[in-house]
Design brief:
With 336 residues, this protein is an alpha+beta fold. The chain has eleven helices and 19 strands. Helix 2 packs across helix 3, helix 4 crosses helix 10 and helix 5 runs antiparallel to helix 7. It is flat, with a radius of gyration of 20 Å. The relative contact order is 0.16.
Length: 336
Amino acid sequence: MAKGDLGIDLGTASFIVYQRGKGIVVFEPSVVAISNKTGEIVAIGEEAKKMIGKTPDYYKAVKPMKDGVIADYKTIEAVIKRFITITVKKTLFFKPELVIGIPTKITSVERRAVFEAALNAGARQVHVISEPLAAAIGAGIEVMRSEGSMIVDIGGGTTDIAVISLGGTVVGDSIKVAGDSLDEAIIRFVRKKHGLVIGDSTAEQAKIKIGKIHPSYETYEMEIKGRDAVMGLPRTDKITSDDIMETLRPIVDGLIGRIKMVLEKTPPELAADIISNGVVLTGGGALLRGLDTVISEEIGVKCIVAEDPITCVARGTGILLDNPELLKAIATTYAR
């Protein structure tokens, strides 16, 4: 494989690109600003995210990934093309190979959309791998061994739960309860308790900066800005870590319920391995303070937050770029 080949995590919350030989070269929010006049992309990532809720009529800021799958095919194609252009400087003689992480429960139509978007963007060959498997590889788990491992990948749009052994998912589940769901719950809480309308970005910042989900963790306070729900005028208020814990706990309990369901379906031999090895948490949601403690207390198995959990899927695709034999064994490949 050439050094220009790319591993891509097309996340609902972030676009992360790993370039062979260089490491992670793109780490941007999954937001694209588009001109309503020309249909062309005017900004991607952080620059586009700053435009959400602030754009004039001739621009629109969109999230082309929703619930872990492509919501806007043409935009994703343009995004992948941009990644290829800025990283590998595609020429007439070189087209990169791509490894792309996809959710466990993606349909055949959605899988085909990923292939087509990548090939139309200029890739010569596309390999897709399930996100929990890529996350496990990125977290340092030896996925080809017969010993069982459990991974819970909490992204922006979906949470993938998988028991992995011998290079595949033995038992798995994918639910549309993840980072975005937590943000939406915070928005509803602030409006109901404080009569304040806040945006997605404010809710996300509150979750990241002061959020917690276990009472043993320290409580912080944060000022939030928004619009008064009654008067319609700008106003500030305060929210605490305890407020966020109270708001998010029912959602986390639902997630834990799905983890328990997967464990109940797990063969006894693999369940014994999971008791020994623990459950590995990846994805941005794994960074919510106390989440590993809450899950561990509820399921009776130790939980480990992977190192740099947000980039595990992208780093997993990067490892596969360097290991063609493993890639061939566990990925689905498509070329024109």
